[in-house]
Design a protein that fits this description.
Helices cover about 60% and strands about 10% of the residues. The protein has about 450 residues and is α/β, with parallel strands linked by helices. It folds into three domains: about 5-85, Four Helix Bundle (Hemerythrin (Met), subunit A), CATH 1.20.120; about 100-285, P-loop containing nucleotide triphosphate hydrolases (Rossmann fold), CATH 3.40.50.300; about 315-335 and about 365-440, 434 Repressor (Amino-terminal Domain) (Orthogonal Bundle), CATH 1.10.260. A hairpin with a 7-residue loop joins strand 7 (about 270-275) and strand 8 (about 280-285).
Amino acid sequence: MFEQLSDRLELVFKKLRGQGTLTEENIRESMRDVRRALLEADVHVSVAKDFVKRVEEKAVGQQVLKSLSPGQQVVRVVHEVLVDLLGTTSQGVVESREIPTRILIVGLQGSGKTTFVAKLGHHLRKRKKVPVLAACDVHRPAAMDQLETLGKEAGLRVHVEKGGTDAVGIAKRALETARSIGADYLLVDTAGRLHIDEAMMEEVERIKREVRPHQVILVVDGMSGQDAVAVAQAFHDRLGVDGVVLSKMDGDARGGAALSIRAVTGRPILFMGTGERVGGLEVFHPDRLASRILGMGDILSLVEKAQEAVTVEQATKLEEKLRKSEFTFEDFLDQLNQVKKMGPLEDLIKMIPGIGNKLPAGLKVDEKQLTRVEAIIQSMTRKERAKPEIIDGSRRKRIAKGSGSSVQDVNKLLKDFLMMRQMVSRMSRMQQTAMLRGKRR
């Protein structure tokens, strides 16, 4: 996401940094390029115009023009205005004193609404909360089945009444269920349509009156660009939306909806949905997203993803094994699975400061290579995984055949693995020696 906008802005800033001195004229010329980049990213016209005006007003100030690195100062100004445009602080779901906290989820059909309900339930469960999911879309039976399937996959409780036609009644009974088990949250999935119509709005309004939600969340398709802004405005005018979720953000390189919705509607963006997995949900952090757009990386989100995938205890055990050269292929396989939990490798690499904006255009990380490595390791016996040194020629042929790879592939993996283990062990010993010398002094 935002790949197209990031690339265009990087070209603008590269040109600015190449200037020995900055003048009001070349700043204004650069801002015209920024405005064009925003419009190509499908940012609302009025938002793009206001954004450029605010940056220009700040950038032509004497502090920027007289600074030692004027190009970098302009980037800093763009970052500040971008954060302000996106909402300054992250918000997420509310938590009321009343149990359960009731969240009403609304949106058009096909926006990713039902998937988001399951993702939000998974997100809350990871934070030690107990959510109940209510399947209240009685107009699309597949929606009930979908929510039930996703709920089971995430280990969540789903209130489903197959064949039911009274959405308000289902929502009411789901609330009673949530109260009876002492659930922390009730997440109500409502019906969507292919367009906004009166019948749809009336039904959602009745559910809202019955459930009395603490928060109304609108899910919009992030790929729909400026149409998402119009949908958000229409729902807010009718229902009083408290926050917006942008789904399918991994499917669009432009991302104009994210930059437009809050500015036009005044409603904060709470989450971004990426992929179909229940774990594909990111809390919306304006400052982090602004840094990502400007190619500065997002190390905080990367650390959070790592913390979710690996516990402190696991990390400590791994460090001990590496230090003692006891790291095995079994451990390596566990690490591969942890990395996969963190999301697509391509996205993880782009979060590393100083790397994301230097990747070749259109770069695609071959995640199939990880699958091939996994297949080779799984074709080994437990003894071979624990002691790769015993893998001779005949064993290599068997492993290659069992994994559908070549003997050369097996040889390369073994060579790289043993070299990596020796290198880490050597570095660890050097570090320990340096520490002992430091203590003696």
